[in-house]
Fold these 2 entries.
Entry 1:
Amino acid sequence: MSRLNVLNGRILSVAGFSFLFAYILSFLFEGQVLYSLLGLHEAEASGYILAAVVAHFAGLFSCGYLVKSPIAAKYTMLGGMGLCLIATIPFFFVSSTLWAIGLIVSGYASGCAVAAWGYFIKAFTPKNQRIKSCADVLIYSNIIMIAVNVVAINLSLIIGLTLSMLCLVAGMAFIWMLPTDTKNGWHEETESKPRSDIKKPLMLLCLFIFIITINSGLMYQVINPAFEHLTGLVSWYWAVPYIVALAVMRNLPVKAKRSRILYIGMAMIMGAFISFMLLGRNASDYLVVDTLMLGACGIFDLFWWSIIGEMLNYTENPVKVFGIGLSANVFGVLCGGVVGMAVTSIQLSSAEVAVIALTVVCVTLIMLPPLNSQLVMLLKNHAYLTAYDRMSETQQTDIIRQTKTLEELTGREQEVLEHILSGKSNREIARTLFISESTVKTHIRNIFSKYDVASRAELISTLLKNQSDS
C-alpha cells in the first residue's frame, strides 16, 4: 500500500506542478498570452515583464527561508496558486496600475509555489527517478502551454487567458490531494541526512546556470522579436524542439554519458546565434534558429533540474535548495533580458549579438570541467554510502583495515569513521557516542588528516577504492 501511495503522490505532484508551470510559461514568465495582452492595450511591455520576472526570482530565492515543513510546502503551493488566480483577474479589463500589482503579486506567489514543490519531488520520487519526474513536468507543462498559446493567438485572447487561469485551478486540485505525512504515503526513504559538501557544488552549479541562461534572456529580447511577424507558426512550434530534446534526454539509458550531451547543447546555442546572424527572417529561417536554440534549452534545463533534484537528498530543507537552484536560472534570464534591452536600444547588429552569445558559451565551456568534477564527487558520495551500507560488517571492517593511513586511527576515531560511512550527520554521531558535536568535528578533522583527504566525499572515495581494486 505504501508503494501505491508513493506512486499516487508522484502522479499528483507531477500533475499539479505541470499545470502551475503551464500557467507561468503561457502567461506570467514572458508568456505569449501576456505579451499579446500588452500589445493589444498598447502597454509598455518591458516594465511589466521586468516586474514579473524580478518578483518571481524573489519568490524562488526567499521561499526556503520561510517554508520548512511538508504541510507548509503544501499550503504554500495552494496559497501561491490562489493568489496568482486572483492577481490575474485584472487582465480581463483595460490596463491599469492593477496590472503591475497583479504581476508582482503573482510573480512572487508563483516563485514560492515552484520552490515549495522541492518537498514533493524529494518525497514521492526516488533519487534515481528524479530526472524522469523533472522531464515529465517540463514536457507536460510545455504541451499545455502550446495548447493555451494556440487558442490565445488563433482563436481568442480572452479564452487563452481563461485557460491559463484554469491551469491554476487544476493544479490546486491535484496539490490538495497530496498526502503530507508518513501514514498517508510520505516516502521516508528519500529523507536524507544533511551534507556540508553540498554548498560548493550548488554554488558552482548556480553560477553555471546563471551564465548559460543569459543567452535565454537574449533569445527573449533579441531573437523572438525578430520573428514576431510569424505569429501562427510561433504559437505552436515555439516549444516543440524543447519538448523533443527533453523526451530524448529522459529516455537515454542510465549509463549514457549525459555530460557529453552538454557540449552538444553548447554547440547548438552557438549554431542558433550564428544562424540568426547569417539567415533571414522567414519561416524556414525561424525553424532553424528555434530548433537549435530551444533544443539546447531542453538539454540544459533538464540537466540542472535533475541535478538539483538529486541534491535534495543532501539537505533537510529541499525548498531552499530547489528554490535557490531555479532562481539562478531566472536571474540569468533577467540579466540576459537587460543585456538584450540594451542591445536593442543601441541597435547592435545581429553579428555583434552573436559575439556576445558566443562569449557566454566560451565562459560556460571553461566552467564545465570543474562543475562536473564537483557534481561527481557529491553524487558519487551518496552512491558510495549506499554501497557501503549494503556490505556485511566484516566487509566494512576489512575496507577500513586495508586502507593505509598516514597515522593509525584511535579507537574513538574508528567509531566516528564507521558512523560517517553509515551516513550519519555530526549531530547524530555526537548523540550516538554521547560526546559533543565540536568533539565529533575534531575527530573528523583528525581522520581527514590521517587519510590525507579534504572532505567526506573524498574520504569515502578513498576507502571504497580498495573495494573496487580488490
Note: Residues 182-194 have pLDDT under 50 and may be disordered.
Entry 2:
Amino acid sequence: MIQLYSNLPSLDLHGMDREYARILINDFIRDNYQSKNTKVVIIHGNGTGIIKKTTQLTLKSNKLVEEFYIDNFNDGITIVTIRKKP
C-alpha cells in the first residue's frame, strides 16, 4: 500500500468471494463509523474486477459512506470517506 495511506485503517479483500466481501465491507464501515474514523482504505486488487465492482456497489448503497474513489496511483485501492458520527 502507498505510504500516504499506511496510517489509515484498511481492509484487504484479496481471496474473498463477492458475498463475503460485501459482509466484510459493511462490517468494516460500521466499525470505523463507531470508532469515529472518517477515512479508510479498501484493498480489492484488480484481477477480474469482480471484487472491485462488488466494493463499489456495496459502498454506493451504504448510508454511512459519504464518498469513495479509486486511488489515482493504484486502481486496486478504494479510498472511503465515512460520515461523521454526531
Note: The chain has a mean pLDDT of 94.
